[in-house]
Write a structure and sequence with these properties.
Elements (H helix, E strand, L loop, with lengths): L4 H9 L29 E7 L7 H4 L7 H15 L1 H15 L3 E5 L3 E5 L15 E5 H11 L4 E17 L7 E15 L3 E9 L4 E5 L2 E5 L2 E9 L2 E9 L6 H15 L6 E6 L16 H7 L3 E2 H4 L26 E6 L4 E11 L18 E10 L1
Parallel strand pairs: 1-2, 11-12
Antiparallel strand pairs: 1-16, 2-6, 3-4, 3-6, 5-6, 7-10, 8-9, 10-11, 12-14, 13-14, 15-16
Helix pairs in contact: 1-4, 4-5, 6-7
């Protein structure tokens, strides 16, 4: 099912950047087994938007609160059909192939259910607590099945909303479904981490869903990590969608300002929702990417040895279609430290080929992912 894994292993797992010259474009690869000093093997990182499983826009934009349970029922059916437990196995296979030290996850979703609904009876408290899907727990379990052990090093909870869903069953034919979004950093067990930070952005989208005022929050997480003797500040984020450009750009500005005083090299991964490719739709080319570049961040895709043009977005909402990817909105960015710079980098796009799909034909996510290996060298 994942016949590309040996190729990825050869390009990612068994690579070393120790043989790189001081030329930052040098991407010479050698098997890690040949290294005399493990500290020269570099840092392997991944960015993965897990995809929440459905388009929630029709719920958010519903004009009549009475329509929400029926629209939400369609969204919940889509979540079930997108089958994250199956997709988690594909994502775990990617991680097994690349062996990242640190992983930034976006749309690290938890769905909870309450049956029957108390929302329709007038209780607007967000209180559903029976877990239907916990994406991070499912992914960690799939990794453990492969003998791979990671832990949550930082997590920020973003949007947390609950809506009634029409079930058509029982005397009260409604349940409540609670959607909780998070951004999560996973660290491989044994990696030294500290100084975890979890923040929501000040700028957010206010909405009213089923008559209830709510906030669509976004956030970022950060840790200090020591990998093979190399220290970095590792940051993971998911900015607002392109429709709300001013809010998204305010978030990017806040992120850059929040990180400006770190003495360590800062590596930012995530879904910026800001296209960097010139042939992307005009509406997707927001200013957030340029804001980060203007704050001193290098785009490692432009420094790496990618196998394609780095497009990561987006597969159809049902994660089954084969419409071509058109946007490069997922990134690995680095602001170099005062005494270290990137001596070499190898990158790959993951989950973008037909053979990456699950046995039932699902893409691992509606985004492709990114994996990168970088080595920091003293000036």
């Amino acid at each position: 099912m994942f016949s590309r894994i040996p190729t990825i292993k050869a390009a990612m797992l068994l690579l070393s950047l120790a043989a790189c010259s001081d030329d930052p474009t040098d991407t010479t690869l050698q098997p890690s087994a040949s290294l005399a000093d493990p500290g020269e093997r570099g840092i392997t990182i991944m960015s993965r938007n897990l995809y929440l499983g459905a388009n929630l826009d029709p719920i958010i934009s519903a004009q009549n609160p009475n329509q929400v349970p029926f629209i939400a029922a369609q969204a919940w059916a889509a979540v079930i059909a997108s089958n994250f437990p199956e997709r988690a196995q594909a994502l775990a296979a990617e991680i097994a192939a690349t062996q990242p030290d640190l992983i930034g996850l976006q749309e690290a979703t938890v769905y909870r259910r309450q049956s029957p609904s108390d929302f329709v009876l007038g209780n607007r408290t967000i209180n559903a607590n029976v877990i239907a899907y916990d994406f991070v727990a499912l992914l960690l379990a799939a990794l453990a099945e492969r003998g791979l052990h990671y832990h949550v090093a930082a997590m920020v909870t973003n949007t947390d909303i609950e809506v009634p869903v029409f079930t058509g069953q029982g005397p009260l034919p409604f349940d409540d479904i609670r959607y909780t979004d998070a951004d999560v950093i996973l660290a491989r067990n044994g990696i030294e981490t500290s100084a975890a930070v979890a923040r929501n952005y000040d700028a957010y989208v206010p909405v009213t869903i089923a008559g209830l005022p709510l906030r669509l929050l976004r956030g970022w997480t950060a840790i200090d990590a020591v990998v093979n003797g190399q220290s970095i500040r590792f940051v993971n984020t998911h900015l607002e969608v392109q429709t709300f450009r001013p809010i998204q750009e305010a978030q990017a500005t806040q992120l850059a300002a929040s990180l400006q005083n770190s003495p360590l090299p800062v590596v930012v991964v995530g879904d910026l929702n800001s296209a960097a490719n010139e042939d992307a739709p005009v509406a997707s080319r927001t200013g957030s990417y340029d804001i980060m570049r203007g704050a001193g961040y290098a785009d490692l895709w432009l420094r790496g040895n990618g196998q394609n043009d780095g497009l990561t977005c987006c597969w159809p909402a049902d994660v089954r279609g084969t419409t071509p990817l058109t946007q490069r909105i997922d990134f690995v960015l680095i602001r170099q430290g005062p005494s270290h710079f990137v001596g070499g980098v190898q990158m790959d796009v993951l989950g973008d080929e037909l053979i990456d799909r699950t046995a039932s034909g699902l893409w691992p996510s509606d985004h492709a992912g990114l994996a990168a290996v970088l080595r920091l060298t003293g000036r």
